[in-house]
Amino acid sequence: MSESKDSSVQAQTVRPTRWRRILLPVCLILVGGGVWAGIEIWNAERAFNRGRLLLRQDRDVEAERELEHYLRWHPHNPKAILLWAEAVIKGDSRTARDAAELAISGLKKIPDASPLGAEARMREGRLAFLILQQPGRAETLLLRSAELRHDLPDTHYLLWKLLDMTERYHYSEAHFWNIYELTPTGNKAERLREWYLSQFSPGSANADLDRHMGFLASGESASEATENLRLSQFLANEPESSMVVAAYARWLLHARERDQAADLLKNFPAFDTALGDPSFVSVLVDLMIDLGRLDEARLYFDRWPLPRDGFLYWHTAGRVFEIIERDDKSAVDAYDRALSVWPGPAEWSVMHRRAQCLSRLGDRLNAELGRQESKRIELLMDTDVHKKLRLVLVDLKSVDTLKQMVSFYTALHRSREAKCWQSELDRLISLPARSRLRPLAL
Length: 442
Known about the structure:
Layout: H1 2-56, H2 60-73, H3 78-90, H4 96-107, H5 117-130, H6 135-148, H7 153-164, H8 173-182, H9 188-200, H10 202-205, H11 207-212, H12 224-237, H13 242-254, H14 258-266, H15 271-274, H16 278-290, H17 294-301, H18 310-324, H19 328-339, H20 348-360, H21 364-380, H22 383-392, H23 399-411, H24 415-430, H25 433-436
């Protein structure tokens, strides 16, 4: 009896001792783990600030490492992701393309719904455009950025330049005016100058970007070869993009390489899908008209996607009505619509075609007035006129420069640009004479 009691007591004594031996290490591990986690979290919080500071000091590789540490604990912090992506791009441990793809993969983690969603899409688009040289991919991202937030100047600037560099300058005006409204007063003259160059000297306007992207050597002037190289590279990077194919085909058409343009367009694998892209349809119709394949041109024009508006549509419609349908009245109406929007006011050749249509309709008076206007604009587009304007635009603190720009846009019937240049002129005149003096070169 007593032996059983002793064994029971002994068993009860052994069990707690055994559990203590098991629980003690577990508790120590848990406590140690908690302490370690606390230290790591504390270090991670400090890593964010260290990373930001290192980035300012251009110590990009160290900044990336610190921000990666922070993101292990806070993987969805959009500010940290933006800083990390910046460190990745600025660092020198990878090729530019590898860095861009890596940065984009991180930026994708910032959702559209985030307050920084528009910024993230803009940065993705910038990398896709300037480094990966994939304008189709970039345009999708930049348009999404603009939808999410309308007041990001970088988004509109990149879209403006992307459109100019893919043979679609007629779509860029809205983006320019968005940027202009967001530009500080002191910088508006420089922005207007850039818009003028974009309108009338696109090679000069895009030269800096072409150099940055490797299409133009330092000190080299822009030429048709530059544009060919750029569009060829875009096509090599995005052969599946109907917009890119259309842009290169448009350049080939300008260069009178019609057969090569036809091969490029007709052999595009996603041809039927591409007919939903107005830039693709436009160049296809123009090419078929130039080749005398009028039935095909009419067939493709009928496939023009909605909305059917803007300079590109109405200019193409005018050619279809005039050349294929022999319907001069409809052609005049279409040309009128084309001339009412940019770049219509500078398209003297469209004015001339309209005058010819009016002449065939028997409207001799308006036909003659149209020819006179066409000739006036043709003279205004003369190379010497724009050479002089580019020279005077070097000095934006000259009253004479600003007066010449007001006169030019007034003669072109572009009231909005004329008013903006007039505002710059009024502001310059209102400044004290000392503020208008240019610093002397030493």
